[in-house]
Automatic annotation (TrEMBL):
Domain Glycine cleavage system P-protein N-terminal: start-end pairs: 15-436, 446-719
Gene Ontology annotations for the cellular component aspect, listed alphabetically: cytosol; glycine cleavage complex
Function: The glycine cleavage system catalyzes the degradation of glycine. The P protein binds the alpha-amino group of glycine through its pyridoxal phosphate cofactor; CO(2) is released and the remaining methylamine moiety is then transferred to the lipoamide cofactor of the H protein.
Entry's Gene Ontology molecular function annotations: glycine binding; glycine dehydrogenase (decarboxylating) activity; pyridoxal phosphate binding
Organism, as annotated: Corynebacterium humireducens NBRC 106098 = DSM 45392
Protein name, as recorded: glycine dehydrogenase (aminomethyl-transferring)
A Pfam match: GcvP2_C
Required cofactor(s): pyridoxal 5'-phosphate
Length: 953
């Protein structure tokens, strides 16, 4: 295989790859290989390798890539957005835009599974949860979901699980169209009966698990939800309310009205329209449902010294551990956007938010009054920000307003919806009213007293103390300083690739021509967006060997679900109604089984052979037993065990032979890009993680994008446009169903992946894969004697990651993989993936972006820790007295007067000389994980909880 040398030291490829040519040779020499090509040839099975070169795309420079993106942006026509339908005009405070959305300390952070080095982002997410809880009047809120439509679907699933006897769900016909479409099809996928109904009359029918109520409705109308809530409770069902958080500054909270669940989108709390996403959805639940809530949940616990400390509670990697029994398949949510929305609430506070809500509402009332004064028909008397006007023909008015610079909604042929956002002004009211033949008229409040908010909200001091820009700037810096993100250190997580994110792509996401585009703007206004998305989808199809790609899934979990729904619907269209078994190898990604369950497939596990590969004998046995019922197998390639299995083609052939489809999880494509094609080695469908292989940042747990790629026969089953379905009528057999609220999902971050591919070029992407393989094998080789590598493939090599096995050391010394993970904090490292996919192990993925010095720094840390373990095994110190058992150490813990440990302060905090000038101290000691689950607190604690002075202990 030819790997082209790096000839331009200023190219993005040279900037992206950590090791330079000289370092690369040092690493290859340690492994005994003369070139990258030789190493790759030794590692990859020959029968999966590309037999013909990919279409060659020459790389662009960073300047050229931005110029191309400027050209795409210039093709978009961004009107002032008065469209609504779940997406509102908002203003991102510059201090938050610069301090969160565009700040590497926030966008390069990983999901806060390791709480000691995540206290900053955990506090920020707890602010978000507290905001949602107080606005909705429900005691427990999660740390974000993906979008409003899929959050509603999650709520339906939650009601179904909680009310096991009911198999029927009612959806309010007043919900936004995209919410109806996604929620209805997701409900049908799990075999629920769906009815879309006008809920103004009495509830009809039995066997209800729950009802979903719009508050306000898609036309802006406000109806008191209490009669419906009381009626469904009387029938033994649950009530979900879908609501706009800004409206809840003026409307009584769903919890106060008796709702069990509230969901919605926090987009209008300072998050740009982004042509549809990413936006942080939310869910809040009653106390009775708190242990079934899907997604991430930040809770308050204590550390080893009794100090308050934050952690993920209950749901930590729940979908990985519980697999098919998980409450949700969501792994990546929208943490970065939740932080943005939460900080928006902190910055404005309750008075500021109420002022924004009152102003928006007042402008809407003025517009309605003007239309009525001119003899026009306003459809609803009670509304918050959206006014529906009856006209003879909607389209001409929408067109006239577009010419005047305004984007409004044609709700139907004779109804125009005008939705007011944060930047709207009186001058806009005047111009909008003029098109309806009206002039500016002062209106009166349009919220009935029966639903006007009476309860206080956002009462925690965090929402009342940080309103100057100086305070906010320092607060954001304080929180980010408590964290370890990629801007500070290597994050060596297996299966969660943390590599360089291209600034040249990142800084374009907030360009107004991209960021301010409404997702339901006509295609002729979004020509640049559509061209960029089409080019990106085309590139991804080339790089995977599939016929077509959809970027609609807004997380890897949703890509998995979209792929499995495509397979399921394909079988149904072919009359194979009984194919409902999904084979999931024990070595597969943990979300796979949860996704299969959400697609209403029964999971059958295929065992693992001694070398970590799929057990072919067990596969044969499962195929023999279930053949006619097998819908699919889900495999991960390279495997989650970090090897290139040489039986992958054979696995695909055997499943195809019984009529099943092959789903290849593409989360690890960064080890294959340019070297092999998933669609050519036997895959029928794959999802990719743009937040892994294609450099969209993890953002502390999101955003993610999980495109789904399919072979030709599955193209009709790709995700449908959610606005093309009405929810009441099931999607036609032979078609796909939507999985996200908008046609292109989280479009607003696609420029990052576009820029990465454009700047790397075909040859650069191939070289990056080879460099990732080199880095992983170098680390495995250097650490293999101290920490055995659990699984290897051809020629004793690994793929892009390796599993370090600590189980024997644990048996000998008591030192666990958790101890090593916590001790690494003292060296300034985020831990590798802990105890997944094999308990008692650490999975390491260094990526191609880390230079030799950083790899060696990690290796030094691990070898130093091994020496500390040897002190225990040699009898020099008891495990209970060891530095490993007590790690990590805060600055206070090693600075205060009392020190009663058998080891020195220097060994605790500065175990290697390189830390003397560059030292990270975690803000808390080791977390008490069990305490946090026993005492579940998921909102901001009072300030006095952090008073650790002696008189308060």
């Amino acid at each position: 295989m030819a790997l082209h040398p790096i000839t331009d030291s200023a190219s993005y490829l040279a900037r992206h790859l950590g090791p330079d040519t000289a370092e690369e040779q040092v690493m290859l020499g340690a492994l005994g290989y003369g070139s990258l090509a030789e190493l790759v040839d030794a590692a990859l099975p020959t029968d999966i390798r590309l037999t013909e070169p990919l279409p060659r795309h020459a790389p662009l420079s960073e300047t050229e890539a931005q110029a191309r993106l400027r050209e795409y942006a210039s093709r978009n026509t961004v009107l002032r957005s008065f469209y609504g339908q779940g997406f509102s005009d908002t203003v991102t405070p510059p201090v938050i835009r610069r301090g969160v959305l565009e700040a590497p300390g926030w966008y390069t952070a990983y999901t806060p599974y390791q709480p000691e080095i995540s206290q900053g982002r955990l506090e920020a997410l707890l602010n978000f949860q507290t905001m949602v809880s107080e606005l909705t009047g429900l005691p427990v809120a999660n740390a974000s979901l993906l979008d409003e439509a899929s959050a509603t679907a999650e709520a339906v699933g939650l009601m179904s699980r909680a009310q096991r006897k009911g198999r029927r769900v009612l959806l309010d016909a007043r919900l936004h169209p995209q919410v109806l479409a996604v929620a209805a099809e997701r409900a049908r996928a799990i075999d629920l009966e769906v009815a879309v109904e006008d809920l103004s009359g009495p509830l009809v029918g039995e066997d209800l698990c729950g009802v979903v109520i719009a508050y306000p409705g898609t036309e802006g109308d406000i109806a008191d939800p209490r009669p419906v809530i009381e009626a469904v409770h009387a029938r033994g069902g649950l009530a979900t309310v879908v609501t706009d958080p800004l409206s809840l500054l003026l409307l009584e909270s769903p919890g106060e009205m008796g709702a069990d669940i509230a969901v919605g989108s926090s987009q209008r709390f300072g998050v740009p329209l982004f042509y549809g996403g990413p936006h942080a959805a939310y869910m809040a639940v009653s106390d009775a449902l708190k242990r079934q809530i899907p997604g991430r949940l930040v809770g308050v616990s204590v550390d080893a010294e009794g100090a308050p400390a934050y952690r993920l509670a209950l749901q930590t990697r729940e979908q990985h551990i519980r697999r098919e029994r998980a409450t949700s398949n969501i792994c990546t949510a929208q943490a970065l956007l939740a932080v943005t929305a939460g900080m928006y609430a902190v910055y404005h506070g309750p008075e500021g938010l109420r002022a924004i809500a009152e102003r928006v509402h007042g402008l809407a009332c003025d517009f309605a009054a003007a239309v009525r004064a001119a003899g026009g028909t306003v459809l609803h008397d009670a509304f918050f920000d959206t006014v529906a006007v009856r006209v003879e023909a909607a389209r001409p008015i929408v067109g006239t307003l577009a010419e005047a610079g305004y984007l409004v909604r044609a709700v139907d042929g004779t109804t125009v919806g005008v939705s007011f956002g944060e930047s709207a002004e009186e001058g806009d009211v005047e111009k909008l009213a003029a098109v309806f033949g009206a002039s500016l008229t002062a209106g009166t409040r349009c919220i009935p007293a029966s639903v006007a908010r009476q309860t206080p909200t956002l009462t925690h001091p965090v929402f009342s103390t940080l309103h100057s820009e100086t305070q906010m700037m320092r607060y954001l810096r304080t929180l980010s300083d408590r964290d370890l993100a990629l801007d500070r250190t290597m994050i060596p997580l297996g299966s969660c690739t943390m590599k360089l994110n291209p600034t040249a792509g990142l800084e374009t996401i907030t360009w107004p021509e991209f960021a301010d585009m409404h997702p339901f703007a006509p295609d002729d206004q979004a020509a640049g967006w559509l061209a960029l998305i089409a080019e990106l989808e085309g590139w991804l199809a080339e790089l995977t060997g599939y016929a077509k790609v959809s970027v609609q899934p807004n997380a890897g979990s949703q890509g998995e679900l979209a792929g499995l729904l495509a397979i399921r619907r394909y079988h149904v269209a072919n009359g194979d109604m009984d194919r409902d078994i999904c084979l999931v190898p024990a070595s597969a990604h943990g979300t796979n089984a949860a996704s299969a369950t959400l697609a209403h497939l029964r999971v059958v596990v295929v065992g693992t052979a001694g070398d970590g590969s799929i057990d072919m004998d067990d596969l044969d046995a499962k195929l023999a037993e279930h053949g006619p019922q097998v819908a699919a197998i889900m495999i991960t390639y390279p495997s989650t065990h970090g090897v290139f299995e040489d039986t992958v083609r054979e696995v695909c052939d055997r499943v195809h032979a019984v009529g099943g489809q092959v789903y290849i999880d593409g989360a690890n494509l960064n080890a294959l890009t340019g070297l092999a094609l998933l669609g050519r080695i036997g895959g029928d469908v794959s999802h990719l993680n743009l937040h892994k292989t294609f450099t969209i940042p993890h953002g502390g747990g999101g955003p993610g994008v999980g495109p789904v790629c399919v072979a030709e026969h599955l193209v009709p089953f790709l995700p449908a446009d959610p606005t093309s379905l009405d929810g009441a009528t099931p999607a036609a057999v032979g078609t796909g169903v939507p999985v996200s609220a908008t046609r292109h999902g989280s479009a607003g971050v696609l420029q990052i992946s576009w820029a990465y591919i454009a700047m790397m070029g075909t040859d650069g992407l191939t070289r990056a894969s080879a460099a990732a393989i080199l880095s992983a094998n170098y680390v495995a080789h250097r650490l293999g004697e101290a920490f055995p590598v659990l699984y290897t493939g051809r020629n004793g090599l690994v793929a892009h990651e390796c599993i370090l096995d600590l189980r024997d050391l644990t048996r000998q010394t008591g030192v666990t993989a958790t101890d090593v993970a916590k001790r690494l904090i003292d060296f300034g490292f985020h831990a590798p993936t802990l105890s997944f996919p094999v308990a008692g192990t650490l999975m390491v993925e260094p990526t191609e972006s880390e230079d030799l010095a950083e790899l060696d720094r990690f290796i030094e840390a691990m070898l130093t820790i091994r020496a500390e373990i040897d002190e225990i095994s040699g009898g020099d110190i008891a495990y209970e007295d060891s530095v490993l058992h007590h790690a990590p150490f805060t600055a206070w813990s090693v600075s205060r007067d009392d020190w009663d440990h058998a080891f020195t302060r220097e060994q605790a905090a500065w175990p290697v000389p390189g830390l003397r000038r560059t030292k990270y101290f975690p803000p808390v000691r080791r977390l008490n994980e069990a305490y946090g689950d026993r005492h579940l607190v998921c909102a901001c604690p009072p300030p006095e909880a952090f008073d650790l002075s002696e008189e308060n202990q």
